[in-house]
């Protein structure tokens, strides 16, 4: 199930970050050892009642002159229109209705995307309500008064947001063709790779029904098998500011990964693996997708016998949170190892939805426990009663133990490695849930 995407748009200082932090709370970082994700809050997972969605803050830098503010806001709004299922348009009751708000409202209205108008800083409903009505003039419907900092009005606002979510079982869910997202920093060769993969056979470009986003996906066929490349090139923006480019490449990656079964993370071999690559990789890791690291532009690297080994080591070191990821050395330019990409994708997709039997799983774990005693604390030893797989995409296991606090990260890692030794699961993360049974 791909989660709906909600984007927040608004002028600087209306309270976007505050609202974002209030809604996302502690859920903002899921995996502690994924770099980048805790530091800049560009996106976060939010749960409201039975709904889960991804919240995106499209606003980045804070420009100082009025003209720049408007052009930046248009840019933000366009990103929101291109990527979101629902747009939250945030305004500030204290500053009142501003010119730029009106212009952005026009743009949002024309997009036909669902827009929820949120009037922030209404810390006192009696006092500020009369000023809230002014925002009806924007022509995008009922304004929802909230106070992001005092956590007021958020329930009504969220009720309105989730009302606009696409129906759950849409065509995208029924379509069993694997969906592939190609992500990476700017200029690593994503477009070149899309073109190269698509060119293998006849390309049909179509707007796939069942999504409310404007992504134009590409259907490709290889060896008689169909795949869908989730295209993010269509939402490419021209932007000269470096921070904005980075922010946008993260937003693009989040929205594409959300819908994907397998992710091709493209890295530029001539540049080596960087912190920014790690941030983008973290997005796919957090969501438990199948991952293939494509070291692109391999044609342009001066190589010796150790090159592959050295590159692999470097990648494993910087992307240490995803040791399971597959690595391929490719060239989008020459087409080097293209068949290998398809072959690996098939295997990774299969591993990402593989189920293993409870019997054999418990045998493996019992053997592992016999080989390496579980940890103890203050004389009490961890006991593992039972393990079972409860979900796929990613494969998720529940381990029943006597005392949760005794289950250390390193022992989970150890069990994971034994399970991987037996069943493979290459290219996919595994999730472990530890439960107590008295
Ligand atoms: P952003 O630039 O849109 O991300 O705005 P921020 O979240 O950084 O907020 C700008 C300022 O408005 C900060 O000083 C916040 O403390 C303040 N602020 C945010 N939400 C509220 C609110 O609900 N009530 C009041 N009184 N101040 C708020
Ligand atoms: P994107 O921004 O990630 O979509 O990157 P592009 O596909 O636009 O490629 C950026 C630049 O890298 C272009 O000049 C490409 O021609 C070049 N490029 C892409 N793939 C390769 C490759 O495999 N080898 C070489 N030598 N250059 C490449």
UniProtKB/TrEMBL annotation:
<feature type="binding site">
    <location>
        <begin position="57"/>
        <end position="61"/>
    </location>
    <ligand>
        <name>GTP 1</name>
    </ligand>
</feature>
<feature type="domain" description="EngA-type G">
    <location>
        <begin position="4"/>
        <end position="169"/>
    </location>
</feature>
<dbReference type="Pfam" id="PF01926">
    <property type="entry name" value="MMR_HSR1"/>
</dbReference>
<keyword id="KW-0342">GTP-binding</keyword>
<dbReference type="InterPro" id="IPR015946">
    <property type="entry name" value="KH_dom-like_a/b"/>
</dbReference>
<dbReference type="InterPro" id="IPR005225">
    <property type="entry name" value="Small_GTP-bd"/>
</dbReference>
<comment type="similarity">
    <text>Belongs to the TRAFAC class TrmE-Era-EngA-EngB-Septin-like GTPase superfamily. EngA (Der) GTPase family.</text>
</comment>
<feature type="binding site">
    <location>
        <begin position="231"/>
        <end position="235"/>
    </location>
    <ligand>
        <name>GTP 2</name>
    </ligand>
</feature>
<keyword id="KW-0690">Ribosome biogenesis</keyword>
<feature type="domain" description="EngA-type G">
    <location>
        <begin position="178"/>
        <end position="353"/>
    </location>
</feature>
<dbReference type="InterPro" id="IPR032859">
    <property type="entry name" value="KH_dom-like"/>
</dbReference>
<feature type="binding site">
    <location>
        <begin position="120"/>
        <end position="123"/>
    </location>
    <ligand>
        <name>GTP 1</name>
    </ligand>
</feature>
<keyword id="KW-0547">Nucleotide-binding</keyword>
<dbReference type="GO" id="GO:0042254">
    <property type="term" value="P:ribosome biogenesis"/>
</dbReference>
<feature type="binding site">
    <location>
        <begin position="296"/>
        <end position="299"/>
    </location>
    <ligand>
        <name>GTP 2</name>
    </ligand>
</feature>
<protein>
    <recommendedName>
        <fullName>GTPase Der</fullName>
    </recommendedName>
</protein>
<feature type="binding site">
    <location>
        <begin position="184"/>
        <end position="191"/>
    </location>
    <ligand>
        <name>GTP 2</name>
    </ligand>
</feature>
<dbReference type="GO" id="GO:0005525">
    <property type="term" value="F:GTP binding"/>
</dbReference>
<feature type="binding site">
    <location>
        <begin position="10"/>
        <end position="17"/>
    </location>
    <ligand>
        <name>GTP 1</name>
    </ligand>
</feature>
<dbReference type="InterPro" id="IPR006073">
    <property type="entry name" value="GTP-bd"/>
</dbReference>
<dbReference type="InterPro" id="IPR016484">
    <property type="entry name" value="GTPase_Der"/>
</dbReference>
<dbReference type="InterPro" id="IPR031166">
    <property type="entry name" value="G_ENGA"/>
</dbReference>
<comment type="function">
    <text>GTPase that plays an essential role in the late steps of ribosome biogenesis.</text>
</comment>
<comment type="subunit">
    <text>Associates with the 50S ribosomal subunit.</text>
</comment>
<dbReference type="InterPro" id="IPR027417">
    <property type="entry name" value="P-loop_NTPase"/>
</dbReference>
<dbReference type="GO" id="GO:0043022">
    <property type="term" value="F:ribosome binding"/>
</dbReference>
<keyword id="KW-0677">Repeat</keyword>
<dbReference type="Pfam" id="PF14714">
    <property type="entry name" value="KH_dom-like"/>
</dbReference>
